[in-house]
Amino acid sequence: MKAIDPHIHMVSRTTDDYLKLAVSGIHTVSEPAFWAGFDRSSADSFRDYFFHLTVTEPARAARFGIKHYCWIGLNSKESENLQLAEDVLAIMPEFLDRPTALGIGEVGLNKNSRNEIKILEKQLALAVDRNELLLIHTPHLEDKLKGTRIIMDMILSEPRIKPERVLIDHAEEHTIREIKDNGFWFGLTLYPNSKGSPERAIDAVEIYGTDRICINSSADWSVSDPLSVLKCANEMRRRGHPDDAINKVFYDNPKAFLSQCPKFSAA
Amino acid sequence: MTPHYRQLNATEILDLYFIENRARLLDIASFLDRIDRYEGSDEAKADFRYQALVNAAKLLHNSDTGRTVAIQNSFSDPSTEPLESAIGLKAVGAWDGGKQ
C-alpha cells in the first residue's frame, strides 16, 4: 500500500531508513522543525537547521524517490529563552518562502508556561500574516490536556485562523474529542514506549471515525520506528477494515490536509 | 454486493489480543513487586507517580465510561493557569498536585 508519514524527523534518521520507507510504500514525508535533544545556543544554529530541512534533506530523500517536505518553527522547549526566540522568529520568513516548506510547525506548548504562550502567540500571528498552515505540538504526558485546551483557546480566539488549516498533533484519547469538536485536524503519534500504539490508534479510528485524522511515526533520535505508520495500517487491516478506509486514513487524509498548501503534491 | 472484508466480533478480539495483554498485566505486576523488593520501598510507594499508577489501575474496573480516557484524565494536570516558568521542568507522566 501507499502511505504518507506527515510527521517524521528524517534529519535524525539514517540513509538506510530512507530505503526502508521507499521499499515499504512511504514515498512522501513531511518533517516539522523540532527540539534537537538539547537547547541550541543561538539563532545561527537554527539557520543551519532550517537549511538542513529545506535543502539537504529533500536532496537526500530524492535519491530514494521520496518527496520530502518540511515545516518551519520554533519548538516550545526553546521558547523559554525569549531573546533566542525573537532571533529565531526573525529568520523564519526566509525559510518559509522555500519551495518545500509547508507552513509553521511544530509549534505549541511543552510545560504550559507564560513564555511558551507568548512565543506561540507570535508564531500564530506570523501564520495569520502569511496565511500559513499550522502544525501544532501538544505537551507530553500529564501536561497534554491542559496544554491542548490552552492552545485551542488561543487559536479559536483568532478568527483569521481556520481550524481546518490546523493539525493538532500528539493527540491522545482524552484530547481527541475536544480537538475534533472544534473543527481541527488531529494527529496520533506512534511511539514504541511512551506514546500511542498501533492498537490504540486504530481504537481511536473506530471510536472517532476516519475524518480529519492523520497518523504519524514522529520517528526521531529517540526510541521510535519509521515504519510504524505501515504497522498501524496493518493493524487496521487485520481487524477487518476495508481497504478504502485504510487508504483514507494513511494516504488520502494526510494528502488532503497537506494539499491545502499549494507547494505540496503527493508521490 | 458482499464486501470482501469482515469486521471482527468481540470474541475474535479477545482471541487476537488476550495473550499479549496478559503479558502486559504481568509486566505491571512485576514492576510493582520489584518496588516492594528493593531498598527504599516505602519512600517509592509514597511517591505521587506510584500513587497515580495504583489509582489508575483501579479505573480498569470501571466499564461504565471509557477506561482509557478515565486513566488519561487521572494522570493529567487539571489546573488552567499557565506556569510562571518552565525552566528545569519536564513531564514525568503524572501530575504532582502542583508542587513543581
From TrEMBL, chain A:
Q: Which InterPro entries match?
A: Metal_Hydrolase, TatD-like, UCP005295
Q: Which Pfam families match?
A: TatD_DNase (PF01026)
What sections of the protein cross the membrane? none
Question: Is Metal-binding found in the keyword set?
Answer: yes
KW Acyltransferase (keyword) present: no
UniProt keyword list: Hydrolase, Metal-binding
Name any one GO molecular function. hydrolase activity, acting on ester bonds
Which family does the record assign? Belongs to the metallo-dependent hydrolases superfamily.
What is the name of the protein in this document?
A: TatD family hydrolase
In its UniProt entry, the species of origin is given as: Geoanaerobacter pelophilus
From TrEMBL, chain B:
This protein is called Phage gp6-like head-tail connector protein
Q: Which organism is it from?
A: Geoanaerobacter pelophilus
Its lineage reads: Bacteria, Pseudomonadati, Thermodesulfobacteriota, Desulfuromonadia, Geobacterales
